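Ticket #4471: structure export looks truncated?
Reporter: QA, pipeline team
Priority: medium

Steps to reproduce: submit the single chain below to the structure queue and open the exported record.
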Amino acid sequence: MKPIPYARQDVDDQDVQAVVEVLRGDWLTQGPAIEAFERGLAAACAARHAVAVSNGTAALHLACRALGLGPGDRLWTSPNTFVASANCALYCGAAVDFVDIDPRTYNLSVERLAEKLTRAERDGTLPKVVVPVHFAGQPCEMAAIGELKRRYGFFVLEDGSHALGGAYRGEPIGCGRHSDATVLSFHPVKIVTTGEGGAVVTNDPALAERVALLRTHGITRDAARMVGDSHGGWYYEQVELGFNYRITDLQAALGLSQLRRLEAFVAARHRIAARYDEAFAALPLTVPYQHPDGRSAYHLYPIRLRLGELGKTRREVFDALRARGILVNLHYIPVHTQPYYRRLGFSPGDFPEAERYYQEALSLPMFAGLSAEDQERVIQTLREVL
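Actual output as written to the record:
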């Protein structure tokens, strides 16, 4: 029987045709498809600006650089995330710290953040940037984080890599109501895909302009930004040390085509989640909690096994499901327990809620194209294994 992955892309004929048209056109990169994709992203997020880049990690790095993060500064994020949410600070020469998670949403805890900020203000160690991660597509409590931002003066960079198509208090993730910018990812397992790709969305024109400059080596052809006089139509200047973090027109064409189905993708994920919720009501596990202020994009469907009731380890459940072709995954190993971060001084026990979640978690198959038959197979196999 064919294995069922935990996630996969959904590419249709119209997506393929969009890429073919670019292949047959004049621009494969740095062309008009990128600008069209950026306009589509900005509209989808109800933001003023979007800058598309090569991947979500590049988006995090560029956003941090554009916010001025550097040596002597601090970035705080959640330990329950992919390592890129923390690594972006180290790329800038800044220090990293973490804020433990809420036991219901698995997002950065506002209560722990407030406590940590009180101590940091006393000690003179306030962060310059806080990166709340909308884990699994569940929006963070952004209004409360925004209040803390105003009180303590840090920047808020939302990691919305899981959350395109989600909403907080009726507004799209990425709208910037309570933050300075939001980063997105378009890896194949995400809500929409460009193959690889990412973006920074913001309402700040200066921030968007700086991200756009940094993604292309820090080079400009804009005479207003040049130090010297223009020498002709060939002339450009490197005015900052930037990077080659460009996205291609091929990727942008795919992404723009995928955006037309964004609402359908998220609606399908909600139907799948509702079926899981119903099917697992009597099983010894906890289904994902949904905060009333948010509408999840349901990038992931993470369950927590109630191991005390099971008489089995999480490893036994994981291996048994995979052996039967249900390719569950695990999101995430807490970042502070990774060997690299241990060498920076972090230790197991530092963020106990994230560690408890990790010990019990499994991510079940969740993608818009998951058929009713395959979902039923996931449900029945999990029931048998438990």
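Status: closed, not a bug. The export was complete when the record was re-opened. Leaving a note from the reviewer for reference: The chain has a mean pLDDT of 97.
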